[in-house]
Write a structure and sequence with these properties.
The complex is a heterodimer of chains A (237) and B (62).
Chain A lengths: L1 H4 L1 H33 L13 H28 L4 H31 L7 H20 L5 H14 L3 H11 L19 H40 L3
Chain B lengths: L2 H6 L4 H48 L2
The chains are: A mainly alpha (237), B mainly alpha (62).
């Protein structure tokens, strides 16, 4: 860890990694789109509407994954005062909010034709909405104070406390009655859906992950350069 | 391949395409925002660093 603790090391490493992540993201999302729209067959019950799944499910996975990354980085920042940790958490937040928004909107567009409603206040949908507000709250808190370090700390504490929401999202479909279907991919005993439907999901999710990784690193680079710029303007000049 | 049929999405076009459009819009929006703010800070920093250090060196000399 100390090796990566150094912002200078991070700038070097990320400069080398960003192009590869960007290429992998373009490839993954491109191939995922092709498989989702042209290779995967229509569902025998849902028809072509099932294609919404290839946007909805990878976005939902990323929504939780990015929150996990953000909360972990916040915890590392609070406990070990790692110089890059809070930078990473604050760079991740808008990306996670974006994935959560995609998940919510695509879910709504899938719910209307399949369930007959755009929205229900059940456990799964509500806990994902809470996730979205956790992201927004984190962003608002991080920028709420004149003293930047206070905002960073407050937001980091919110992120760590909010982790409790992740298992609630995951198990909400088992713990409560819900319109949302139970887990069909990551479950004990293996997936219940056919491989021809699984592949586009995984490829798209992989594309989203590389997209997140690339943008996360660019946003962290931005934040570090911004800090250097501030130091030049007000600090040790 | 029948494109008319493809775009019709078995009658679900008004649900399927907006879902894909929102995903594209959000991801492209994040991309454009991230890249433009990165370029801006890079540009500002290069302007500062051209002026900054030289002036400092000159001031440090007695």
């Amino acid at each position: 860890m100390p090796r990566f603790a150094n912002p200078t090391q991070f700038m070097k490493l990320s400069a080398a990694l960003v192009p590869w992540c960007a290429a992998a993201a373009a490839l993954g999302i491109g191939a995922g789109l092709y498989m989702a729209l042209f290779v995967a067959p229509p569902d025998y019950q849902q028809g072509e509407a099932v294609r919404i799944m290839y946007v909805h499910v990878p976005a939902a996975w990323l929504a939780s994954l990015v929150y996990g990354v953000m909360a972990l980085a916040s915890a590392v920042g609070l406990i070990w005062r790692h110089p890059l940790a809070h930078v990473a958490a604050e760079a991740a937040a808008p990306l996670g909010a974006g994935f959560t928004l995609i998940c919510l909107v695509s879910g709504s567009l899938w719910g209307e034709p399949m369930w007959g409603t755009w929205w229900v206040w059940d456990a799964r949908l509500t806990s994902v909405l809470v996730l979205f507000f956790l992201y927004l709250g984190f962003i608002a808190l991080a920028n709420a104070f004149d003293d930047q370090s206070r905002g960073t700390r407050a937001a980091a504490i919110l992120a760590v406390v909010g982790v409790i929401n992740l298992p609630i999202i995951k198990f909400s479909v088992d713990w409560w009655n819900t319109l949302h279907q139970p887990a069909s991919v990551f479950r004990m005993g293996g997936p219940t859906i056919a491989p021809i439907l699984l592949w586009p999901l995984f490829v798209m999710a992989l594309g989203f992950m590389f997209f997140f990784a690339a943008l996360l690193m660019i946003r962290m680079r931005s934040a570090l350069l911004e800090a250097r710029l501030r130091a030049l303007k007000f600090g040790n000049t | 391949m029948n494109w008319q049929k493809f775009f019709d999405m078995g009658g679900y076009a008004r649900f399927v395409w907006p879902a894909y459009a929102v995903a594209a819009l959000v991801l492209l929006g994040l991309l454009v925002w991230t890249l433009s703010s990165y370029r801006r800070v890079q540009r500002e920093l290069s302007i500062r660093e051209e002026k900054g250090p030289r002036r400092r060196k000159a001031a440090a000399r007695p």
